[in-house]
Amino acid sequence: MKDRVVEILVYIMAEMQENKQLHDIDLLHLRDRGYTTSEISAAFSWLYENMPSDGAESIRPGRAAHGSRRMLHDAEKAVLSTDAQGYLIQLGELGILDDRDIETLIERAMTSGYIGLTVQEVRELAAAVLFSRDRRAGGTGHSILNNEDTIH
Predict the structure, then answer these.
(1) Using H for helix, E for strand and C for coil, what is the string for 59-71?
(2) Per-residue DSSP letter, 30
(3) Exposed site from 10, 82, 92, 95, fewest CB < 10 Å?
(4) 45 falls within a domain
(5) Which residues are CB-neighbours of 104 under 8 A, at least 6 positions away?
(6) 141 closest CA partner among 6, 39, 42
């Protein structure tokens, strides 16, 4: 599932936050945790597709955002569990979701009809937002898993 790719992205971006370069990240740790080569490859493809290609600074997590920060309305807080709210903040701070993606995810959560969405449910929503963004932006689609790939 694509939500597993989001888990890998969180791991990679957290490692980068520790000032590691992409080539220094221990992929054996990911394989030991049960991720397939296809899932790991899809996560790295997503990263490369979303890094600036004009020589500008690459994605660097943990950087303080410029401008204002999104505050959740009480109704939005009711839809997301406290852990899910924290996870959403983490996705934004790591640079996996941008402001527009966060708004899209919150909108989908609000229209879901559920209360107290879990981290796993938010991870699934994040995967849907990330991979639909790639198609809208005319991405090459490398980060999308093939139908015959084995995933858990």
Answers:
(1) CCCCCCCCCCCCC
(2) H
(3) 82
(4) yes
(5) 129
(6) 42
| 117 phi, psi to nearest 5 deg | -55, 140
Q: Which domain holds residue 93?
A: 2-54+69-136
pLDDT in tens, 3-48: 899 999 999 999 988 888 878 888 898 999 999 999 999 998 888 8
Number of domains in the chain: 1
Residue 96, in any domain of the structure: yes
In angstroms, the Cα distances linking 37 to 8, 15, 101, 111 are: 11, 19, 26, 34
Question: Is there a contact between 14 and 61 (Cβ–Cβ < 8 Å)?
Answer: yes
DSSP per-residue codes, 92-126:
HHTTSS-HHHHHHHHHHHHHT--SSB-HHHHHHHH
Residue 13 in any domain: the answer is yes
Enter the tokens of residue 67. Answer: 């401008």
Task: Inform me whether the pLDDT recorded for 143 exceeds 70.
Answer: no
- Is 59 among the domain residues? no
Distance CA 119, CA 100 (A): 19
- The Cα diameter of the chain in Å comes to 43
Q: How far apart are CA 97 and CA 54, in angstroms?
A: 20
